[in-house]
Amino acid sequence: MITTMKTEIRLRKNELENKNLKSLYFGGGTPSILSADEINSMIDEVLKYFSFDKDIEITLEANPDDLDKNFLKQLSKSPVNRLSIGTQSFFEEDLKLMNRAHNASEAEGSIKRAQDFGFENLSIDLIYGSPTSNLEIWKENLNKTIALEIPHISSYALTVEPKTALENWIAKGKIASPKEEEQNREFYYLSDFLKENGFEHYEVSNFAKPGFYSRHNSSYWKYNEYLGIGPSAHSYNGFDVRSWNVANNQQYIKKLDAGILAKEEEILSQQDQFNEMIMIGLRTIWGVDLDSLKSKFNHQILDHFQNEIKSKIEEGILITEDNHLKIPEKHWFMADGIASDLFLV
């Protein structure tokens, strides 16, 4: 697979307009199952066709159970300088419900081991609103996070995905369904608590100490171009083309071995581009750049937009600030619903 992905990098080297990379992200699936040598080999391949910004952020997604001492020792010698750890929770009951391979002890131990090997730029995922949790347990989760001195947190409400064990348990009455009211309560406690402890709430689900915003994800939220390599990976040209690789590993390998890109693409309509800008922008502290909207879209779209936002501004659900449209933070839990009301349909 590594050899095939290197082939894809070579074939797609001209797709990015900016050849100087500010971020490189090893994500999707479980990239930490790669050896440190394989990760270094991939980085070297990227450097054949691109240059790295002097302070490039190179992130590796990892599960806690993959971060043993030997792997971290080798990884600490690589250019990887940021870890995103799929912690989810520090409580056993939560982890069992989410069918995680690691336990509560491994969740904490992996973070401490990473820090021992010099990784200070850490991000963890935390899930709130679980039926196995409550506000008091959530508070303990957050206290543990602060005690571990983690500078970046991505936190999401538990959702029930179709055809999962959780959906089946709920249908059979073995466990309660997540309650939106409780998730709302835990979300706002999360926001207030982290801000009190020096974090900035810069996107609905993301919190960072100053200087620790995720550069990679921030580039998504600012509509920058990006190139995704590997099965299922997505790419965007920063304007009107999105593409994605086939998900099937064998098809991916077979096509690239024949020198054919294993991807599909779509041309985004004006409607698609508008809806994406609204959805993504309103989830961030930066909001939607009104000047950018005016330069990108015709007057019919802009007239629709002005009509739709008028009542929401009067209600205080939307505000304008420095020529950017934003949702006040107290309404962020409902950000996606507010944004969808503005969509072109």
TrEMBL record:
Q: Which residues form a coiled coil?
A: none
Residues in domain Radical SAM core?
Answer: 1-200
Give the keywords, sorted: 4Fe-4S, Chaperone, Cytoplasm, Heme, Iron, Iron-sulfur, Metal-binding, S-adenosyl-L-methionine
Entry keyword Metal-binding = yes
Report the InterPro entries cross-referenced here: Coproporphyrinogen-III_oxidase, Elp3/MiaA/NifB-like_rSAM, HemN_C, HemW-like, rSAM, rSAM_sf
UniProt keyword Hydrolase present: no
For this protein, the record's SMART domains field holds: Elp3
Q: What residue range is the signal peptide?
A: none
Gene3D superfamilies from the entry?
3.30.750.200
**Locations listed in the record:** Cytoplasm
Any matching Pfam family: HemN_C
Cross-referenced PANTHER family: COPROPORPHYRINIGEN III OXIDASE (PTHR13932), RADICAL S-ADENOSYL METHIONINE DOMAIN-CONTAINING PROTEIN 1, MITOCHONDRIAL (PTHR13932:SF5)
Which family, according to the similarity comment? Belongs to the anaerobic coproporphyrinogen-III oxidase family. HemW subfamily.
Query: What does the UniProt function comment say about this protein?
Result: Probably acts as a heme chaperone, transferring heme to an unknown acceptor. Binds one molecule of heme per monomer, possibly covalently. Binds 1 [4Fe-4S] cluster. The cluster is coordinated with 3 cysteines and an exchangeable S-adenosyl-L-methionine.
Q: What is this protein called?
A: Heme chaperone HemW
Gene source species: Chryseobacterium vrystaatense
